Amino acid sequence: MDEHSAIECVRSAPIFVGLDDETIRQLTAISTHQEKIMAGTTIYRAGSAVDRLLVVDRGRIKVYRLDANGQEQILYFLDAHAVDSESALFTDVIHHNFAETVEDSLVCSIRQSDFEQLVEQTPSLAVRMMRSFGKRLTDLENRNARYGTLMARDRLLQYLEETAGQLSQRQFKLPLSKRDLANWLSITPETLSRQFSKLISEGIITMSGREITLSNLPASFPDQGGTR
Amino acid sequence: MDEHSAIECVRSAPIFVGLDDETIRQLTAISTHQEKIMAGTTIYRAGSAVDRLLVVDRGRIKVYRLDANGQEQILYFLDAHAVDSESALFTDVIHHNFAETVEDSLVCSIRQSDFEQLVEQTPSLAVRMMRSFGKRLTDLENRNARYGTLMARDRLLQYLEETAGQLSQRQFKLPLSKRDLANWLSITPETLSRQFSKLISEGIITMSGREITLSNLPASFPDQGGTR
DNA sequence: TCAAAAAATTGATATATATCAATTTATTTA
DNA sequence: TAAATAAATTGATATATATCAATTTTTTGA
To answer: How much is the pTM?
Structure first.
């Protein structure tokens, strides 16, 4: 794991793609080498200092908080090439969320102070960051608006459609446990299980473990391309 | 309404406070004069182009979207000195939300192209923008986490506490209609009305029209200072 | 590979809130 | 100021989903 890894980490992140070579070089210079993190590891927790920017090279990380009852509430997932903590980096001193790997993952990181310095010297990078923030904000607003009023069944259908759309295939493996999916949809695992059963008995989907096939989706849930 | 107004508009916005005089001068130069907008006016709508940044000098604006059933979903309110559309400015071509004045308001605006150019030349401004994004993102995440699991009664109490905390007085006038409040709390007006009745009969609050006085709040809802 | 732990499913029940409908109260505006 | 319109309240009912409890299935790790 030499400098090569760090370059790849930075290069592959969409948020950095297209930046000029010099900026990429500088980013690489201040980023750490890849770090291997086992599934189930907590990367940061609420209350800990926001001291670095994360770049995910491989794996999957869930970012969540604990509500008043100590219940986990998933905010978003970080997949390969995602960047995290950008928004907190300029705003907060401490994390308000928890981040935990759900798969074995490879992660690079950039120290806050180094990054902030580079951003201040590199307007194009600043604009990138703003775009990234804007997207995350829009996604969150969409998610709320989308899931806010829908019933369990519709949320699930929406989710399945989205996932199928993103992967552009009607058959796929759920990228999270049903427990996490229930959490993500803000319903209980029991309700999720019942909704799945219903969809199966109606012939809308086929399921075997986490393997799902969409068959006859109601017309009210058209493909939507991406998240927005 | 001459240039003076525009200066005030820009100067008073927290997001711009503390920037050096030269930057303020430039911001002022590219911002329009104050515009008077009557209550109930739609400022932008989903689908319209994101062509300017808004700075609210006086009044109140609600930003919302329409869900699948055509129901209004309030995302946030803009009060005096708030800045809006920053996040969309670098990310989206069109608005995904609606913005509508709920009071007569005074608004300045800055053309997107002018602003983007200035940001690219002014790293300190870029960092400001990032802080602002981060805050909005954090607020939204908090709001979800906070309201996501709570029941109607608790959401209402939470809201009343927050509002009292922000105004630092136990008696205040609801800054929105009960209709909008219900929407904001994601409950029906009927449920809100019943929850209010209950709190009154329990001696927790006193209400006359929109005038509310908090008396005996349960200890489980401590003052929280701000929004975060 | 087997035992232990965790996740998922299924059933019975309780409950918070939406919905529908009818008044009452407050706000516009002519 | 009165008439018209909108907002808020109150009641009766329906229902989606949480909760509690008991199995079954899957995953994990020794």
So the answer is: 0.83
